[in-house]
Amino acid sequence: MKKLWVLLLMVGLLAACGSDDSKTEATGNPNESTWDDVKDHDRIVGVSDKDFSKLKKMKPGKVRNDTTGKAKKLVMSGNEDVLEYLLSYEKKNMKDDEVHYIINFTTNTTTIVNKMSGLLYADVKEYVDKEEHDAKAIGSGMLLKSYIIYPDGDIEEVE
User: Fold this and answer.
1) 33 touches 54 (CB < 8 A)
2) pTM for the complete prediction?
3) Of the ranges 5-19, 20-34, 100-114, which is most confident?
4) Domains of the chain: which residue ranges?
5) Backbone angles phi, psi at 35, to 5 degrees
6) In sequence order, what are the residues at sequence separation of 6 or more whose Cβ sits closer than 8 angstroms to the Cβ of residue 39?
């Protein structure tokens, strides 16, 4: 009789430890819904879905007087919204822990881009004259707007 109770107890414990595959299939890939749960859908202002290589052929270069070795800059001119190109730019040009400065002389802005926890963060600042020549000055202009770019390309404006 003791063996029967032990056997029933073991079967009950094993059944309780099992997984329910129907729940996993119903929710799909948990990573897909994670970003949608985090986004503020009312603040989505666009999509980063354009190919940066069609906009600019050059690769980012080093920033003079950068002591970290992780700052990169790219100088451009044009009226294109650089945010729409940042996802492809990141995939082609950025490494972990780097900070990239995209200086646009037409719009007089410097866009500072970094990646953390799978998201791209972009701060658009006013361009300061000759800031591209020194790591201490680059990106020092007044903050105009901040954005988060999600892996699916959604661009969210941050207050």
Assistant:
1) no
2) 0.77
3) 100-114
4) 43-158
5) -65, -35
6) 150, 154, 156
